[in-house]
């Protein structure tokens, strides 16, 4: 083995082992709660939630014409601040409350990007309550015993995908209790 290969090979092995811990190696490594796929808001390409296994997730049902819509600013700030530590904010636009998300996926994507500079992952418009609620939101409601009562309800999921906390719409992204829970989940391996 050449000297160069002898120096590079150990570094590559470390790099590959780090990459392997960043994302599950198989569906078996993905928590059952995250075994769902949704279209992305911007281009409707399938987005498996398993790509976020091992991350702390803040899942929010959003709406463009709601009194809580300004929470997009705080959600984006939170994501920008903590994504390097493993936080992912996931937005699920929904027209379930007051018909406050009537637009198409493209209209919603443009609104979020142009008005609030949203960069966190947004998924295609979906139902989050009632008989038509998507299966992920059904599982979140079952895990917490709480369904969203309005837009901008938040579910916080730990890295294992087993512990889920629920926060109502009035809980802002900067609320001390929410931030403490996020920090507690981020501190867990």
UniProtKB/TrEMBL annotation:
Domain Thioredoxin per the UniProt entry, residue ranges: 17-187
Family: Belongs to the glutathione peroxidase family.
Protein name, entry field: Glutathione peroxidase
Keyword Cell cycle: no
Organism of origin: Azospira oryzae
CDD domains, A to Z: GSH_Peroxidase
GO molecular function, one term: peroxidase activity
InterPro entries assigned: Glutathione_peroxidase, GPX_AS, Thioredoxin-like_sf, Thioredoxin_domain
Keywords: Oxidoreductase, Peroxidase, Signal
Signal peptide start and end residues: 1-27
Any single Pfam family the record assigns to this protein: GSHPx
